[in-house]
Specification:
Chain lengths: 289, 350
């Protein structure tokens, strides 16, 4: 193996993993406040398609990014309204968001599929993704609003009794998660691909969801985990190219299997790992109780 | 000022009316979508909801789509009633197809009348086996079943992919990722010549009937409802909660596995990558829309099946992607969950 090949592989891993970091860090903050959003895949797809359509129509990258983010704000705002104000089941609402997003993005993007665009340099976004992980880590562990987010996710009744606004806090984290997911989608359709194709996020939303658990809700571990997951996917292609006989599907299922193993560890380890899992995850907050 | 209060008088009427309201709201919003796409809403709705079922072929197709949805959703209702969130039905369906389909491929020369029953049995076992994993992890380690069942779905899809591009690939299939067709003895009998509607429909009706009896007339059904309201209460009452988790997972896994086997041995006839257009996830909508009530699930499965058919016709005649069906499915679930609010709370303006 020569050094150029190693750098080449490293480069591909860097470029292909970034959407996982974006979507993962958003979901991590959402989950830290006690909300499980299964709508990542839908949010990413709609973010990808709005960014793409805006770019084709206006030719302006800034507008493209802006409208992609707006789509995330709107969709995650709807999700937040349903689960926070109407206290709907988070699992069902998240799945509805994913199914809706898959459909909506395919419908909107139909006319634009195959339109060539000039892609954006991914390296800026890679740097931003590292910065975001740093900021999320700092926010959650060192700032007062970050501690409030964690308090709300840990026990919303206590947080409410202490005078914190549970609903408002969760609105913020859900919308942050939505923006990050649509940013991941924007990155995929504008920087990584660059093109639009129906269902082009190819299950990355679910992997990002797995990643948050794999990282046991810790931002830095999420970054490492993302590169392990991303690296495994790239390694699979390269190993096949040099003739390793292990079936590729085996590598593809690794992230999911690894996540299940981590989940089992978290739930059986009563002392350390469980501490980082938000205790109120997926439990609706009912003020009127 | 808007006041929101927990409802003390529980209303059955609103409970069963809200799915209807959700459907109407979906149609209302759907017409906006058609308007945005520059299509006449009335014409589009005709193509979407009426023309697909205006002939015997269409009605048969409606049942072909509704059968797996109903069977999976009926199984899921056991879990959901027990407040256990098995969202991995898609994976259990896939495993059922692998297990049952595997039997069909193993005995591909067979003409025995026992082949199909054996495939059906293995389909159910495959699905139940895949559902046992999250059940075991939940009862042994208290691992979150939502995430494990979801992750296992993707593992199952990759296992199917491995088989159809690897050991089970049809040598005469021009290298396509699909298996050999099952022998005739392994195909599900159709109800009418020339139509695809198959005997899976009977299974759906039987499972619906059994579920109705289980929920309303048996101790097991009572236990499910109690532990659904409060797992603590169920433990105080001396019910073995862990066993309940196990049974509900196995029932729903077996149903999903059955549905998967019916798909591959019925309309499809062989194994390949995309055996299910998201039935396992869509069935979650069906279960909720049907209010976890067996009869309600049959009705909602027909309605959601219509969104699949309508979407196919819309693609053909309106030139819009068939994914528009997913938009309707997502919307109807949003509205259903939203209208549920009125079911739990009293809203008054003062």
């Amino acid at each position: 193996m020569n050094i150029e090949l190693v750098i080449g592989i490293f480069n591909i891993v860097l470029i292909s993993t970034t959407p996982l970091v974006f979507a993962g860090i958003g979901e991590l903050v959402t989950e830290k406040s006690g909300v499980l959003n299964l709508g990542l895949e839908g949010l990413m797809l709609v973010g990808a398609v709005t960014g793409f359509i805006t770019l084709v129509l206006t030719g302006n990258y800034f507008y493209s990014l802006f409208f992609s983010i707006i789509s995330g704000v709107i969709l995650s705002g709807i999700f937040a309204f349903l689960v926070l104000n109407l206290m709907t089941n988070q699992i069902a609402t998240g799945l509805a968001l994913t199914i809706f997003g898959i459909g909506l993005s395919a419908m909107l993007g139909k006319k634009f599929s195959g339109t060539p665009i000039e892609g954006l340099n991914p390296y800026y976004f890679i740097v931003i993704s590292f910065l975001l992980v740093f900021m999320a880590s700092y926010f959650l562990s060192k700032t007062k609003p970050g501690l409030i987010v964690r308090a709300v996710g840990e026990n919303h009744n206590s947080a409410y009794a202490l005078g914190y606004n549970v609903i408002k806090t969760r609105y913020m984290t859900i919308i942050f998660g939505g923006v990050m997911s649509s940013l991941a989608g924007f990155y995929i359709s504008i920087c990584y691909a660059p093109m639009w194709q129906e269902g082009m996020t190819a299950g990355r939303g679910w992997i990002a969801l797995a990643l948050v658990v794999f990282a046991t809700w810790k931002p830095w571990r999420l970054l490492v985990g993302a590169y392990i997951f991303g690296g495994v996917a790239i390694m699979q292609m390269n190993l096949q190219a040099i003739g390793v006989k292990l079936p590729g599907q085996f590598f593809n299922m690794m992230p999911y299997l690894a996540t299940i193993i981590v989940l089992v560890f978290i739930s059986s380890n009563k002392l350390r790992l469980k501490l980082s899992a938000p205790a109120s995850l997926n439990i609706p907050f009912e003020k009127n109780q | 000022m808007i006041n929101i209060k927990l409802r003390e008088d529980y209303s059955n009427l609103i409970f069963y009316l809200s799915p209807l309201v959700a459907v109407l709201l979906t149609l209302f919003f759907g017409s906006f979508i058609f308007l945005i796409l520059d299509l006449s809403p009335i014409e589009s709705f005709k193509i979407f909801f009426i023309s697909p079922i205006s002939n015997s072929y269409g009605i048969s197709e409606l049942f072909v789509k509704a059968t797996p949805l109903a069977i999976i959703a009926l199984g899921l209702s056991y879990c959901f009633k027990n407040n256990i969130y098995n969202i991995g039905a898609e994976g259990q369906l896939t495993m059922g197809a692998i297990f049952g389909g595997g039997i069909g491929l193993l005995f591909n020369e067979s003409t025995s009348i026992f082949l199909l029953p054996l495939m059906i049995l293995f389909g159910a076992i495959g699905g139940a086996f895949w559902a046992t994993i999250p059940a075991l992890l939940k009862t042994k380690f208290n691992t979150n079943e939502i995430l494990t069942s979801l992750m296992l779905t993707y593992v199952a899809l990759f296992i199917l992919d491995y088989f159809v591009v690897g050991p089970w690939k049809d040598p005469a299939g021009y290298g396509l990722p699909k298996s050999m067709p099952f022998p005739d003895a392994g195909r599900l009998p159709v109800l009418f010549d020339g139509l695809r509607i198959h005997i899976g429909v009977y299974f759906a009706i039987i499972i619906c009937f059994i579920s109705y009896i289980v929920y309303n007339k048996t101790l097991f059904g009572f236990k499910l409802r109690v532990s659904g309201f409060s797992s603590k209460a169920s433990q105080y009452a001396g019910f073995k909660y862990k066993n309940l988790i196990f049974y509900t997972f196995i029932i729903s896994g077996a149903c999903s596995g059955l549905a998967g086997l019916f798909e591959v041995s019925g309309p499809i006839g062989l194994l390949y990558r995309d055996i299910s257009p998201n039935y396992g996830f869509t069935a979650i909508i069906v279960a909720f829309l049907g209010r976890l009530n067996p009869l309600g699930i049959i009705l909602s499965s027909l309605l959601i099946a219509l969104t699949y058919l309508g979407a196919e016709d819309a693609q053909l005649f309106l030139k819009i992607p068939s994914a528009v069906g997913f938009v309707f499915q997502g919307l109807v679930l949003f509205f259903l969950l939203g209208t549920d609010f009125l079911n739990k709370y009293k809203v008054s303006v003062s």
